[in-house]
């Protein structure tokens, strides 16, 4: 384990705590709105789902952040005099039980986030056929995730070397590929539908960009691609990108939930209304209306010339 890897691990842990604070803020804002007893927002049937879903996201990311912090403390401080140094400690204890628990938390977090993103894709498109391929990939990620946990948690297993890398590369290729597909589907759909929403031009532009970045979970996909590339080439900075990826696995879905709870997120009704508005915009004017406009224009032309 090089010094660059250790520096990346340390910096990644610091970003974990920063983004964990962001998640705590988003979670608090979401729960305040969901538990609002003053009637400032209309209760929805999905409120209980969002309460449970948001709490699970927070619980799983808490486990991951705590595990990374504890392992860093054990490696650099508690066992600073370990024979062979921190590199030897990592090699000997990479499969310690709580590291396996942290990896399990990140895999379950992935499954929750990906499942929710598939659901949002269906909401934006309002068509079950569009999510057939994402659902097939989702099942494959579940299988590969189990194999990854087994290989990295087995005695003498190591998340960053050996068989775990092969399973891990397959798993992350599937789940990040799923992220990219769903992100592109949502991004393109929102870009198309948002043109039908009649709001002031400047506000419309801001709303469109915010919807695209948040609703499509763009940071989640970008961080995932960066992590996958660095993991595949076994770069020493892969652990840093892993930190960003796992944290955005939690933060991005929570941002979407907050928008939905606030009434600003995309819904099936909003999709249907936007499609109807676009269809009306694309309907050509009736022929008699065009003839009437032409006759009026022809009648007004001579009088205007005479007046001149």
Outline the structure in words.
By secondary structure, the chain is an all-alpha fold. It has one domain: Rhopdopsin 7-helix transmembrane proteins. It is 80% helix and 0% strand. Helix 1 runs parallel beside helix 9 (238-261) and helix 4 packs antiparallel against helix 5. It is elongated.
Helix content: over 70%
Per the CATH scheme, the topology name is Rhopdopsin 7-helix transmembrane proteins
Strand content: under 5%
What is the architecture at the second tier of CATH? Up-down Bundle
Keywords: Membrane, Transmembrane, Transmembrane helix
Protein name: Fungal pheromone STE3G-protein-coupled receptor
Transmembrane segments: 18-36, 48-71, 96-118, 130-151, 171-192, 212-233, 239-261
Biased composition (Polar residues): 297-308
Key terms:
Rhopdopsin 7-helix transmembrane proteins, elongated, single chain, mainly alpha, 0% strand, 308 residues, disordered C terminus
SSE layout:
Layout: H1 3-34, H2 47-78, H3 85-93, H4 97-125, H5 132-153, H6 163-193, H7 201-215, H8 218-232, H9 238-261, H10 268-282, H11 287-307
Helix pairs in contact: 1-2, 1-9, 2-4, 2-9, 4-5, 4-6, 4-9, 5-6, 6-7, 6-8, 8-9
Organism: Wolfiporia cocos (strain MD-104) (Brown rot fungus)
Protein name: Fungal pheromone STE3G-protein-coupled receptor
Region (Disordered): 285-308
């Amino acid at each position: 384990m090089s010094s660059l890897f250790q520096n990346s691990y340390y910096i990644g842990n610091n970003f974990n705590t920063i983004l964990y604070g962001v998640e705590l803020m988003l979670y608090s804002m979401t729960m305040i709105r969901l538990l609002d007893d003053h009637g400032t927002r209309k209760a929805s049937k999905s409120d209980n789902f969002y309460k449970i879903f948001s709490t699970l996201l927070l619980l799983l990311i808490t486990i991951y952040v705590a595990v990374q912090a504890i392992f860093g403390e054990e490696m650099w401080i508690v066992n600073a005099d370990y024979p062979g140094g921190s590199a030897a400690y990592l090699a000997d204890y990479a499969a310690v039980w709580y590291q396996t628990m942290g990896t399990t938390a990140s895999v379950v977090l992935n499954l929750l986030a990906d499942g929710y993103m598939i659901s949002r894709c269906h909401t934006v498109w309002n068509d079950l056929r569009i999510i057939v391929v994402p659902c097939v990939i989702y099942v494959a990620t579940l299988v590969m995730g189990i194999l990854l946990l087994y290989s990295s948690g087995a005695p003498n297993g190591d998340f960053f070397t050996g068989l775990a890398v092969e399973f891990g590369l397959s798993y992350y290729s599937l789940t990040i590929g799923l992220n990219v597909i769903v992100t592109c589907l949502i991004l393109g759909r929102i870009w198309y539908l948002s043109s039908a929403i009649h709001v002031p031009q400047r506000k419309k532009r801001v709303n469109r960009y915010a919807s695209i970045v948040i609703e499509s979970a763009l940071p989640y996909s970008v961080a995932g691609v960066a992590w996958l590339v660095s993991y595949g080439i076994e770069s020493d900075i892969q652990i840093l990108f892993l930190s960003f990826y796992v944290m955005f696995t939690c933060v991005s879905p929570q941002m979407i939930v907050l928008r939905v709870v606030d009434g600003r997120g995309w819904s099936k009704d909003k999709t249907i209304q936007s499609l109807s508005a676009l269809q009306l915009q694309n309907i050509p004017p009736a022929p008699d209306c065009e003839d009437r406009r032409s006759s009026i224009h022809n009648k007004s032309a001579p009088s205007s010339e005479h007046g001149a």
